[in-house]
């Protein structure tokens, strides 16, 4: 996997700027007067010939661009800057990295494009479970169980990735309602199920794709799976390498920012609920793999997406990696992951982070009021650094 590692960045940017420079003045959006770069001349192949800009962005979504279904006012103005309304005159590439998910990348990008008013392509979008595309080969033909989301939406996403035998906890309820007697399937839930005999179907892995909707049912079935070597209803066994069910969580967020006034419990809270119950039953925590921000594997995956996006816009691979700026609202995920990846990080005040509760747990490169201010600050910083 190719990664974005900074080479001789400053000298390269200076050369790049000199090559483009034309005596000209303009205004940053906040009216700060700075020396600027020549607007890139547009030709019929402009998008294929654009020079690489000195910086690229990775944005979190919830609490940065959106809150619930509402677009934050600064989001559209920030994206307009990246589409060329900035002192460099260049389109500045960006990707979105979210710990959200539950639907396909294509469907989410269609929705985001409509909400934000800019074309967001799947090639610039990484959601919590996108990284699972890289492990499909390991499980493609084995039965797996997916958790989270409504009805069988997550099953469809998993099948779209290439997993062939995908089951849900609602399938388990349709097979045997006594598994969890405190829930009765609704007609719509039943219509989403697949018939399968779980007593003859060893599940090799459990993937928590998205936030579970029925924690009690899902904790029960997860406990059944991991204690019985993947066969629901079979006798409980000590966990060993031979009978271990792989457990994968895609989003570690304990909290996330939705439309409600206070942050809501996220998938990380479900993981802790499961582990607390499992610990009470066995005296141990169950081993698991964690994807999503701030995991290293997710940031490595995002770096590859960024390099591909740069090539898509300019028609060639970047010789020198530009500075990456992560803009997020959650110090524990956005800022921690960006800092570990050696990116610059900007923490905004429109989401989870509450300055009234003290300094953030992970120190960002900069704190901004909102995403527009974050973008303006980063562009100004790179231009000043380039001289
Ligand atoms: Mg967020």
UniProtKB/TrEMBL annotation:
GO biological process: glycerophospholipid biosynthetic process
Cross-referenced InterPro entries: CDP-alcohol_PTase-I, HAD-like_sf, HAD-SF_hydro_IIA, HAD-SF_hydro_IIA_CECR5, HAD_sf
Any single Gene Ontology cellular-component annotation: mitochondrion
Gene Ontology MF term list: hydrolase activity
A Pfam family annotated for this UniProt entry: Hydrolase_6
Top-level lineage group: Eukaryota
UniProt KW keywords: Hydrolase
Protein name from the UniProt record: HAD hydrolase
């Amino acid at each position: 996997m190719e990664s974005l590692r900074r080479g001789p960045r400053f000298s390269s940017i200076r050369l790049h700027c000199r090559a483009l420079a034309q005596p000209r003045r303009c205004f940053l959006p906040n009216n700060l007067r700075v020396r600027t770069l020549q607007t890139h001349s547009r030709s019929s192949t402009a998008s294929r010939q654009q020079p690489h800009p000195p910086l690229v962005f990775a944005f979190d979504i919830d609490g940065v661009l959106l809150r619930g279904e509402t677009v934050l006012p600064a989001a559209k103005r920030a994206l307009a800057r990246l589409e060329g309304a900035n002192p460099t005159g260049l389109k500045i590439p960006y990707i979105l990295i979210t710990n959200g998910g539950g639907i396909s990348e294509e469907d989410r990008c269609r929705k985001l494009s409509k909400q934000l008013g800019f074309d967001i392509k799947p090639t610039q979008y990484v959601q919590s479970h996108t990284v699972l595309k890289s492990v499909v080969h390991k499980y493609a033909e084995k039965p797996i169980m997916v958790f989270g989301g409504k009805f069988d939406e997550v099953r469809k996403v998993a099948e779209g990735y290439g997993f062939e035998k995908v089951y849900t906890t609602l399938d388990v309820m349709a097979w045997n309602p006594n598994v969890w007697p405190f829930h009765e399937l609704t007609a719509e839930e039943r219509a989403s199920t697949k018939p399968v005999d779980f007593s003859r179907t060893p599940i090799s892995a459990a993937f928590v794709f998205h936030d579970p909707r029925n924690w009690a049912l899902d904790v029960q079935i997860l406990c059944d799976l991991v204690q019985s070597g993947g066969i629901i209803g079979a006798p409980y066994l000590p966990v060993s390498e031979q009978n271990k069910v792989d457990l994968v969580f895609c989003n570690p967020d304990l909290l996330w920012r939705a439309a409600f006034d206070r942050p809501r419990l996220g998938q990380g809270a479900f993981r802790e609920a499961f582990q607390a119950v499992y610990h009470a039953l066995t005296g141990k925590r169950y081993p698991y793999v964690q994807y999503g921000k701030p995991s290293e594997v997710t940031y490595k995956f995002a770096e590859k997406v960024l390099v591909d996006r740069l090539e898509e816009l300019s028609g060639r691979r970047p010789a020198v990696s530009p500075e990456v700026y992560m803009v997020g609202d959650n110090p524990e995920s956005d800022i921690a992951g960006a800092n570990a990846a050696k990116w610059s990080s900007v923490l905004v005040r429109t989401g989870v982070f509450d300055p009234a509760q003290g300094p953030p747990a992970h120190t960002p490169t900069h704190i901004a009021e909102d995403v527009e201010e974050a973008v303006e600050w980063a562009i100004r910083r790179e231009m000043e650094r380039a001289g």
